[in-house]
Amino acid sequence: MHAHLEGLLDQLETDGRPGLRNSIALTWIRYNKADPAPCSGFGTGWCEERLLYPASVVKLIYAIAVEQWLHKDLLPESEELRRALKEMVLHSSNDATSLIVDLLTGTSSGPSLQADSWENWKQQRQLVNKWLNELGWPELKSINCCQKTWEDGPYGRERDFYGAMNGNRNALTTSATARMLEGIMTNGLISPRACKRLRELFARSIDLINRKENPENQVDGFIGEGLPQGSRLWSKAGWMSQARHDAAWWNSPGKSPMLLVVFSLGKERAKDELLLPEMTKQLASFPPH
Question: Which end of the chain is more exposed for a tag (fewer CB within 10 A), N or C?
């Protein structure tokens, strides 16, 4: 698998993408079972421990955290919570994500704070990171999931919380993202019931008609576009002026399930709508026979 991946990166770099190896990180895993149950997998990666700004892929972490908080009775179940959760994942709504982060941490945006109020606010905003650390998984070491996502940018106490030179931005690795998505798909997080609800949230249609009806489908220009028809897809994409990311699990007819997380960086990668689909086509067909 690693030799296949190395060859693919060489091919894609030669095909008009100079410097690709320095602007991409990925984790690629192939599994032995097709149904969502505990199963074993094997795979490889490229720069998969590199901490990078995840854009909207962090919403995958926040969605799992919501189910964990509900499981521990730290959040009350409500229609508004479920509406925000759906909008955060399905349409990648930043407004919905703002509410979710507020609910998870007991904080809210606003003007700058001082003294004890500021220290208490910062401590509360670290609750998601605290939970991730308590899982004790080596893949989650050093990641940072404590910031909201923005259309424009943070202001007030949110800007203060980013720190000097934006040193407190969200940060994920492709290996950490893969471990969390794998947990959803294999009932390895919280409870089978919670994982089932999360799979329902992250399920995406690769049907061409459905995609045309929803231009922001998180399939076109991302991993899902490279899958053969008949595949089932669960994913969360992230896209901004300096990044094009995706995290996906899929089942294709006659093939073992696969998981692929790709973070690609820079303006050229962000504009490249062909990179992730082409990469997926080549990886999804492995092994060729």
Answer: C
